[in-house]
Amino acid sequence: MTSRGYTYPGLTGSNKVDIARIGMDQALLTGNVQLLADAYDMAHSELKIVNGPRADGIRADGAFRQHDGMLYNGNYGMSLILCRFIFGI
After folding, report:
1. What share of the chain is helix, strand, coil (3-state, %, to 5)?
2. How far, in Å, CA of 27 to CA of 62, rounded?
3. Are strands 64-66 and 57-58 parallel, antiparallel or unpaired?
4. Neighbours of 2 (CB within 10 A)
5. Which residues pair with 49 in a beta bridge?
6. Is the pLDDT of residue 4 over 70?
7. Higher pLDDT, 3 or 79
8. Is the pLDDT of residue 69 over 70?
9. Which of 8, 14, 27, 71 could hold 80 in an S-S bridge, CB 3.0 to 4.6 Å?
10. Which domain covers residue 31, as residue numbers?
11. How confident is the model over 77-87, as a mean pLDDT?
12. Please, which residues bridge with residue 63 across strands?
């Protein structure tokens, strides 16, 4: 993976977790322990409750929002939950 994709500014929510998962895959394939730790931290930083009106992520009521707080009932939320299982978080 190029650093351009991995360090792309402004990634949030499910998009950021998807990129982190790719970083973990690369780290495991190449034996890069530092990349693995960085990717895990990147993913873990997004798996928290957010409540701002336009915040991306999981809400206290269990809803999931992405792209400036738009409510999603599939895809982004499902991707985030699947990544939680993959990462064991």
Report:
1. 55, 10, 35
2. 31
3. antiparallel
4. 7
5. 58
6. no
7. 79
8. yes
9. 14
10. 3-87
11. 67
12. none
